[in-house]
Design brief:
alpha+beta, elongated, about 20% strand, 5 strands, five-stranded mixed β-sheet
Amino acid sequence: MLEFVVAVAIVAVLATVLLNRVAYYQGQAERVSLQTIVANLRLSLQSRIEQGKLPSGSSNLTMLAEENPFSWLKSKPVNYAGEFYAPSDAQIGAGNWCYDRSDKSVVYLLNNAETFSRGQAKRLKFKVKLLHLLNTSGIAENAAGTVVGLDIEQVKT
């Protein structure tokens, strides 16, 4: 009987360690997936900017900042939920991406917020930002600012 109790205790400890490691690797997989999709969106944005510089292209960067970045991808991620106007968490679904038409941002709803960092929001938002030409004091040249490029940046929620 004692041998059985010892065997059960060893199996319980091993199962606990295994489940802890599985949760860790799930969090790491989510982090890598998120970083990969954001990198793909940045690459497709740079491609669109370069296409606009061609003689047959349109180089209106302001209009490009208004588009859904997922429309630039050849194929959308399997966890892309679509376009919504001010979506709720239920509309997006955990572990999914969407495009929020209300503020023209890309939203990712985390599966598990604790895997990224303590106290971080459950939603991550990314937005296409206009990069303006700055003068020597670091202020845009004029109110409109000369747009010199675009980038996708994370914004605070």
